[in-house]
Amino acid sequence: MIPSGQDRFNHRLCMPSHSDALAQPCQEPSGQFDPPETVWAAPVEPIEPVALSKPLGLPDRIYLWIEFLTLFFALPALFLLRTVNIPLLALLGSAVAVSLVLLLRDRTFDRRQLWNLRRGLFDLPRILGVFAFLGISLAAVVWYGDSDAFMKLPRENPRLWLAIMLAYPVLSVFPQTIVYRVFIFHRYRHIFRTREAMIPASALAFTMGHIIFENQLALALTLVGGALFSYSYDKHRSGAMSAIEHAIWGCWIFTIGLGAFLYLAGVAR
C-alpha cells in the first residue's frame, strides 16, 4: 500500500535525528497545530546614531575637538572682544549654511532629523508639562522682582511684540536648532559618544553663542534652555519639535519682560 502524503508527513515528524540515540516513541499528531504562544515584549527604543557610529582614529578625533572648540568657543570670544564685527543675522545665516552643507554631504546623516515632526509629537505632552511648571514659576519671579517690567513689551508696544512673536521662530529659533542641536549631535557624535556628554556639550555651545549679549541673565537662561532643548532633541531627534520647544520658551521670555536682555543686546550689536 502506498502511503498517503499525510502519512509521509507524519512519518517525517516522528523520525529521530541521527544524534538522538535515546529518542522517545513518537506520538501521532492530532491533525491540528496549537497556535504559537503570544509573548509580550516591551517596545524597543530606537538605536541612537551614537551607538551605530564606529570609533574614529585619534587624529580624526583631535581634529573634531579643535573644530568644535574653535567654532563654538573661540569665535564667540572673538566677537565678545570686538575683534570681529558682523551683524548677528548674517553670522547666524553663515553658520546655518555651513552646517547644512556639511550635514547634507554626509551620507551617514539621516535628513529626516531636520524636521521629523511626527516622531517629535510623542514628546509634546512632556515638553508642555515642563513649560507649564517652569514657565509659570519664571513669570512669578519676574512679577515679584520687577512688577513694572512684567508684560511690559506687549502692554506698551504690542506691534513690536507681535512682530517678534512671528519673526523670532523663523529667523532665529529654527536656524539655531540646526546649528546647536542637529549639527552638533551628528557632527560631534564621535567625541561625545554618550548623552551624558553630548547634552552638556550642546548646551554649553548654545550658551557661548549668546555670550555676546554680555549679561549674566542671558547666559543663565540659555544654559538652562540649552540643556532642556538638547535633552528633548536627544529623545526624539526631531528638528521641528526642538524648534517648537525653543520658540515656546523664547516667545514667553519676550512676553513676560525678560526679552530686553536678549533683544536690546542683539540690536546693539
Q: How many helices?
A: 12
Give the helices and strands as they follow along the chain: HHHHHHHHHHHH
- End-to-end Cα distance: 99 Å
* Helix content class: 55-70%
Structural class: mainly alpha
Instruction: Report the sheet-strand fraction.
Output: under 5%
Radius of gyration: 29 Å
Q: Based on CA inertia axes, which overall geometry fits? A: globular
Low-confidence stretches: 5-52
Can you characterise this structure?
The chain has helices at residues 5-14, 49-52, 58-80, 88-105, 117-120, 124-145, 152-156, 158-187, 195-208, 216-236, 239-256, 260-268. The chain is mostly helical and 269 residues long. The protein starts with a helix and ends with a helix.
From the structure above, extract its key features:
0% strand; 269 residues; mainly alpha; globular
Brief summary:
This protein has 269 residues and is mainly α.
Topology at a glance:
Elements: H1 5-14, H2 49-52, H3 58-80, H4 88-105, H5 117-120, H6 124-145, H7 152-156, H8 158-187, H9 195-208, H10 216-236, H11 239-256, H12 260-268
